[in-house]
Design brief:
Elements: H1 13-21, H2 29-39, E1 44-47, H3 54-64, E2 75-78, H4 82-95, E3 104-107, H5 113-121, E4 126-129, H6 131-139, E5 150-153, H7 156-161, H8 165-173, E6 180-185, H9 190-199, E7 204-207, H10 212-216, E8 217-223, H11 229-240, E9 245-248, H12 252-264, E10 269-272, H13 278-289, E11 295-298, E12 313-316, H14 323-330, E13 340-346, H15 351-356, E14 364-366, E15 382-387, H16 397-408, E16 415-420, E17 425-430, H17 434-443, E18 453-455
Parallel strand pairs: 1-6, 1-7, 2-4, 2-5, 3-4, 5-6, 8-13, 8-14, 9-11, 9-12, 10-11, 12-13
Antiparallel strand pairs: 15-17, 15-18, 16-17
Helix pairs in contact: 2-3, 3-4, 6-8, 16-17
Length: about 450
């Protein structure tokens, strides 16, 4: 046994078994350093970037201290964006499988307020939400935080940058003063340090060292020379032909223009930004996670909740404003020990900006020749099918796998990621067998029940 083994934490055997099934073999640095203190009830300040395993770390701590409060939430996790809140809630649900009847509720903009109010009325154990929506429920008397034993502030630096300080302060003030407070932030500027001083007691400051994932993310700068940035991007994508990639732009309009240019050049690409409605944003993220979409062109804010284990490539079409944003961007690739590549397009006037981002000594190369664009990226390997049934219908991933393999005759190797929500489920299947899988699910039964099924398509822009 090593000091990175989860069994050193004295977690119950079912918890360890579940971690193994989820693929958690060893603790990451932030988990190894922070979990013992968090499990002991100590307030923690975690200095860790995305992709370091911090969500699993505070998720386990939240579950370990869960104390049923007669329907009142026992834990509250605040996140800066609705996408991140959804990701965190899903991860906590996966971690909570050994803890029977744990109810996790997401409160965020873009969701039905009435549905959230009804769920609160039926009782909930853990709330994951954005500050604005949580504060709204609190102000209207729909939410009682008097039973909260653990408060988590995730990506605190981004919450403050987005102007949530007043909402966070009001929410924290509605929780018991003797609660445990866990704060995670990729950076610790003065406003974040002030937040720690206001909300935490004798907090342990933990800074994760650069993890293996970051070290494995190769970085490459393509020098544009006199070439137009958009034309250069088309050549770069055609040269690398990634299985999956996120292309970062600084503005919504640029995202739309880049996605349109790539599509016109023969690459299926879709924009992701705050100007899209929430349903379309959720669809884009779902398809990317399920391997049913190759190219997403996103702003930094829209990509905050983007968590794709096998993202092959990140491209900076526009240079980020600072090194923290650059760190967040490249943290989307090379996750969980996998290889990944971060590419930055740089013009003749970008030398000083590259140095500020820490790219002064990064490998450089000229943009690939125009002939490379003749190599079009193949269509996505997977298709995503929606099934109109979910947790409330007692559906589990094994039920869907069983229906596809036993009833439809799809090979297990052709089944990818499965996501189950309260009222709907999604399953990725290999594109060549998608039509057969869809027809079989629509005509057959899952757990002796019939469910409508349909293929999830990319959102269209009017």
């Amino acid at each position: 046994m090593t000091d990175t083994d989860f069994s050193t934490l004295q977690l119950p055997a079912p918890w360890l078994d579940n971690l193994a099934r989820l693929g958690y073999r060893e603790m990451t640095p932030i988990q190894r350093l922070a979990l013992p203190a968090m499990l002991a009830g100590t307030d923690v300040q975690g200095h860790a970037s995305t992709g370091t395993g911090k969500t699993a770390a505070f998720g386990l701590a939240v579950l370990a201290r869960l104390a049923p409060e007669g329907g009142r939430p026992s834990a509250l996790v605040l996140c800066p964006t609705r996408e991140l809140a959804a990701q965190v809630a899903d991860e906590i649900r996966r971690l909570a499988r050994p803890v029977a009847h744990t109810k996790v509720l997401t409160l965020s903009g873009g969701s039905s307020v009435e549905r959230e109010r009804a769920a609160l009325g039926h009782g909930v154990d853990i709330i994951v939400g954005t500050p604005g929506r949580v504060q709204d429920h609190l102000a209207r008397g729909r939410l009682d935080l008097g039973g909260v034993t653990t408060l988590v502030l995730d990506e605190a630096d981004r919450m403050l940058e987005m102007g949530f300080i007043d909402a966070v302060t009001a929410i924290a003030g509605a929780t018991p003063p003797d609660r445990q407070t866990l704060l995670f932030s990729a950076t610790f500027p003065e406003p974040v340090r002030a937040l720690c001083a206001a909300f935490q007691r004798a907090a342990l400051r933990i800074e994760a060292p650069p993890d293996e994932r970051t070290a494995r993310a190769a970085q490459l700068v393509y020098e544009l020379g006199a070439l137009d940035r958009m034309a250069a991007l088309v050549r770069v994508v055609g040269h690398h032909r990634p299985d999956s990639a996120v292309i970062f732009c600084n503005h919504r309009q640029t995202c739309d223009e880049v996605a349109s240019a790539l599509t016109h050049a023969g690459f299926a690409a879709v924009a992701l930004h705050g100007g899209m409605d929430q349903h379309d944003r959720n669809t884009v993220l779902l398809l990317l996670r399920h391997g049913s979409l190759r190219l997403v062109v996103a702003t930094d804010v829209a990509a905050r909740g983007l968590d794709v284990e096998e993202l092959a490539l990140v491209i900076n079409h526009d240079l980020p404003a600072d090194v923290d944003l650059y760190t967040h961007r490249i943290g989307r690739t090379a996750r969980a020990g996998r290889d990944g590549l971060a590419i930055t397009l740089a013009g003749p006037g970008d030398r000083r900006a590259l140095a500020a981002l820490g790219l002064g000594g990064a490998p450089t190369a000229p943009v690939p020749a125009a002939g490379a664009t003749e190599l079009r990226a193949p269509p996505p390997a997977m298709a995503t099918i929606a099934i109109q049934g979910g947790r409330q219908d007692r559906l589990r991933p094994g039920d869907i796998v069983g229906a596809l393999t036993t009833e439809v005759g799809i090979a297990g190797s052709d089944i990818g990621q499965i996501t189950i929500s309260d009222r709907i489920s999604f399953v990725a299947v290999a594109a060549p067998v998608a039509a057969r899988a869809l027809a079989g699910l629509g005509a057959g039964r899952i757990k002796k029940q019939r469910f409508r099924a349909y293929r999830v398509e990319l959102p269209t822009r009017g």
